[in-house]
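Dear Dr. H.,

I hope your travels went smoothly. While you were away I took the liberty of generating a structure for the chain from your last submission, since the lab meeting agenda had it listed for discussion. I wanted you to have the full record in hand beforehand rather than looking at slides cold. The sequence, exactly as received, is reproduced here:
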Amino acid sequence: MTLRPRITRLMLRDFRSYRALDLRAGAALVALVGDNGAGKTNILEAISLFSPGRGLRRAELRDMRHMPQGAPATGGAPPDEAPADAATFAVSITLDEESGGARLGAALEERAGALSRRSRIDSEAVSSPAAFAEYVRIVWLTPAQDGLFAGPPGDRRRFLDRLVLAVDASHGARVNAFERALRSRNRLLEDPRADAAWLDAVEREVAELGVAVASARRETADRLAALAATRRDAPSAFPWAALRLDGAIEDMVAGAPALDVEDHYRRLLRDGRARDRAAGRTLSGPQTTNLAVRHGPRDMPAELCSTGEQKALLIGLALAHARLVAAMSGMAPLVLLDEIAAHLDPGRRRALYLELTELGAQVWMTGADPAQFGELPAGAQLLRVTPGAVGPFAASA
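The corresponding predicted structure, in token form, is as follows:
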């Protein structure tokens, strides 16, 4: 049985454009309508804090504090210069009774002049946001991802890691540890007098973490590909994507034991020290992997497709990912879709809302034009967002 958690209440304090907000929800599809800059995306970002990582904007936590009207939207004053009422924020969500009715909290708190992230479940502190994965899984799609297929490989690696993180809450910690180990190796290579035994130890850590990262990426990509294969003949306005990982370590983990791959990677690192020292960085490993995407029905590289085809392909990938999360975790994810229908014609909008309904997940969407949500099915919740406030949508407003 798949659990289908829904947010029934969202509370914000001193978060972004909201001094205070107490929002009741509960519908399967929730649409937020408002002018640009009204604060729609801020609500999605607040919900995204209940997943590991930095949220859907990848912003610094200190930049999420409420600022008075007219204050800088980003950056902000250092903690020791920030006014007391802007030093912290708090976000909480309450889940429906069928999902257990848990209340999850995320906050930025100031203690002894230092800012830190705090996470709570039913008022009890937990070690990290990874603990929220027992209650909710979250996936999202934002306009910032529209250029994903034509952008640099690093963007697609981060996108892939976000896909993995939704099914494996510890993946983010592994990626961060791997990147720290790489930085340590690069610093050692800069010093010609560095101890060889120390370098060996760091390279052992790089290899262990790198293989773990590559294995998690490989498994998620393979599962997504298998899921796409089962739906290739299903009619959809959003085509299936063919995925391929271009990376030597990812290729090896597909057909060899992890320990053998670690040994091979360590040899690559050891033999490549002179080359990497000259380059100023480590040139081999999962940090260079590319996620190659093709438009499945047309068998065409995604970067060569039209803008509309790329958008439809990206939506199809997001829908497939949501299905994968549900299949692997036994929990339908919360789905956050920022400005999702802005460039879709009415037919594709109807198709999108139908597929979202069939997912069985709670979906939060934003849009500036109420007409974008004219095809929403009965029972959907339409809310109007104005600066600092959210209320029921009235057609005459």
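Two observations you may find useful: The chain has nine helices and 15 strands. The first strand starts at residue 7 and ends at 15.

With kind regards,
E. W.
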